[in-house]
Amino acid sequence: MSENPIPGSENPEKLTGLKQGPIKKVAAGIPAVVSALEMTVSEAGLERGMKALFNLNQKGGFDCPSCAWPDPDDERSGIAEYCENGARAVAEEATAKKLTAEFFSQHSVQELGKLSDYEIGGKGRIAEPMFLPAGGTHYQPITWDAAFEKIGTELNRLASPDEAVFYTSGRTSNEAAFLYQLFVREYGTNNLPDCSNMCHESSGTALGESLGIGKGSVTLNDFYQAEVIMILGQNPGTNHPRMLTALQKAKANGATIISINPLPETGLMGFNNPQTVLGVLGYKPGLTDIFLQVKINGDMALLKAIEVLLLEAEQKAPGSVFDQHFINQNTQGCNEFLQDLTQYNAEQLAAQAGIPFAQVQEVARVLAGKSRIIACWAMGLTQHKNAVATIKEVVNLLLLKGSIGKPGAGTCPVRGHSNVQGDRTMGIFERPTARFLDSIEKNFHFAPPRNHGYDVVECIKAMHAGEAKVFFAMGGNFLSATPDTRFTAEALQNCKLTVHVSTKLNRSHLVHGQEALILPCLGRSDKDMRNGENRFISCENSMGVIQSSRGVLQPVSEHLLSEPEIVCRLAKATLGERSKVTWDQYAADYDLIRTDIERTIPGFADYNERVRQPGGFYLPNCNRAGDFDTPTRKAHFHIAAPEKQHLKDGELMMMTIRSHDQFNTTVYGLNDRYRGIYNERRVILMNAKDMQDRNLKNGDLVDLHNHYDGVARVAHKFIVVEYPIPEQCTATYFPETNVLVPITSVAEKSNTPTSKMVVLTITPHQGF
Ligand SMILES: Nc1nc2c(c(=O)[nH]1)N[C@H]1C(S)=C(S)[C@@H](COP(=O)(O)OP(=O)(O)OC[C@H]3O[C@@H](n4cnc5c(=O)[nH]c(N)nc54)[C@H](O)[C@@H]3O)O[C@H]1N2
Ligand SMILES: Nc1nc2c(c(=O)[nH]1)N[C@H]1C(S)=C(S)[C@@H](COP(=O)(O)OP(=O)(O)OC[C@H]3O[C@@H](n4cnc5c(=O)[nH]c(N)nc54)[C@H](O)[C@@H]3O)O[C@H]1N2
Ligand SMILES: [Mo]
């Protein structure tokens, strides 16, 4: 066993028994249908489970709590618009199992810490508010009133509001998020870190600087009109399965699909749509036309190689490759950018990216003749040191081709959590704009703080240093999702009070401050009843569509509160007479919250009326309209050099990725079916040559080490799995290896932990 200073902070090093099978050639089909139904019925029961599934992503139903992929604007699949992993996210939430005070009295915090994330997640929904007193070994029941009073007292006792931190995960509704940031700012701080800081922050930063809006520009309809779709650093078969349906349709309309990934991800390679009979029978599987198996973080070199070849082609036949009209009208910095490109040699760049030159030439040929190009990306681009620069390079390529602000073309950062984009729109941001704060001040008659707050990495450091003392989380699993698990555990333990608004038990409840509270809330699928009315909330998807979401299931316990209600009661308990906000009225009537969102945030005119229309409404998007909200009103080319990989002898690069059976830190099962890995999560995927160099065989046990910044980090007991991954690249599952992700290694400008770029050395496993 490792020397673990903080009991319960990590997954125990128990192996569960690896079984291996072939890597699957196609995603979905019958196994996906079976897997979705199995979990739904076993967790929620037949009636409850089916009720949930039939209402998932239907107009008037509830928004899938899994990813942020949009629903079709018009026709939706007759039975239900969901995928295997959406169904499993619902099953996870709709489970009929619950954790009452009795459960917590029988199991100490220490005992629960010995369970794996898979075992913890299977325990059920938290059924009542729980409190862990200072020095206590077991959580005890507490009334809602007493819980709010305790938090209010602690918050008011702090020397400054900046000693409190208010985290948000991305499932929180627009209504709850708006109230939450309003409360936090009236209380007096901008310490509003969120999961975005670890997710698409690099995209927001890059797009904001290049194009004037931190969101993607495409709609679902653009997919159906695109000529080329590039997919970089994203695994939609597992993480956004409904995207495969859109890709299939795009392909049927003639689009060429280019996938750029160190792994031949099954969903990208082939797809059998489970919502069509032919798909279930296994028809037309191929999706990707060109697969570029890039080395980890080789994307920038690859993009530059493509651009160099495009420039050469343009010089041979001016006007045939670049969209000169678009460039002249809409962009700035193109000449300097092209001048800089001339220093590079495409062949060398291709070698740096790990891609055969002929393949890069093929891609350049495809792109040269096309103008309706969409670029999609996710964590494979955002969680690197140079993530912001790489995403700007994606934009550079689109700008050269005039592929922004026209049908069938544009940017598509594919968001993670189902309302992560909406939370940001509502003001969950540690660095709010002056425009936003002015609007708060004008509408609510208090002066919000103007100094920037902590993001995720900064708040961990502040808690560790004793500069932040109260940690409040609106959802999420902060300990497991953040980098450097042991450091973060010490940071949380340093706090006076840690509070989690949660649906399910997770590790962050078990590694706590001096005192701790768990406040159980309603989930997306739960009915939110008030005066006989089942109320709805609203969310924004990855393409900027605002839609209502109304739960359909009886909550597992009468003691659950909705998130908006929790914020209102927290605000009253903390601010009392000081507050200028009508919290009671908001808690009673969500329409009033939406009215005030409309007054405060642009784009929400007639919110209450339009959100009630089937399918909701689109928020304005300047890029979509061909406009760029930068200081110059032009799109900007940015110049940056590809990062050289600096691996020393014996070192490897590790990316931490999701298996098929998890939603972030929630582990649904132990299989990663598409990758042919069953019944085990403590695996490291390695290239055959790297294994040979180290005398390793498939199935050997190893320990993983990282020494960034002179700190010795170790993750014990991982099983070596030979896999078709480029040399010097490895992959492991998050969160088991978060212990190795250095808190001090972050992306430039966005401060996102570099979870896909962890330098590793490997030793044979020591001990048992
Ligand atoms: N079922 C399910 N759905 C989810 C989630 C989940 O956990 N489970 N999580 C949600 C959230 S919050 C998010 S952010 C998204 C995450 O969605 P993804 O970003 O698809 O998730 P990851 O597993 O992190 O996958 C990253 C992909 O990038 C590739 N990659 C890694 N490094 C590089 C690189 O340097 N270059 C390139 N080109 N590729 C690279 C990996 O091989 C992998 O295919 O999914 C959301 N949806
Ligand atoms: N190494 C590594 N680390 C990563 C990543 C990676 O790729 N590699 N990915 C990062 C990314 S992209 C993200 S987004 C973060 C995710 O970070 P988080 O969002 O903090 O983590 P989740 O695992 O999604 O949170 C799950 C918990 O949320 C609670 N929950 C679920 N639904 C609700 C709800 O409706 N309301 C409330 N109040 N609570 C709810 C449940 O209690 C559940 O245990 O992790 C990041 N961490
Ligand atoms: Mo995410």
Structural notes for this entry:
The chain has 768 residues and is an alpha/beta fold. The chain has 4 domains: 27-93, no CATH class; 98-199 and 419-604, Rossmann fold (3-Layer(aba) Sandwich); 202-413, Dimethylsulfoxide Reductase, domain 2; 645-764, Barwin-like endoglucanases (Beta Barrel). It contains 31 helices and 32 strands. The strands form 10 sheets. It has a 6-stranded mixed β-sheet with strand order 6-5-17-16-15-7, with helices on both faces. α1 packs parallel to α3 and α15 (299-316) packs antiparallel against α18 (346-353). The longest helix is centred in the middle third of the chain and has 18 residues, at 299-316. The protein is globular and about 75 Å long. The model has no long low-confidence stretch (mean pLDDT 94). One ligand MGD binds next to α25 and β16. This is Molybdopterin-dependent oxidoreductase alpha subunit. One of its GO terms (biological process) is cellular respiration.
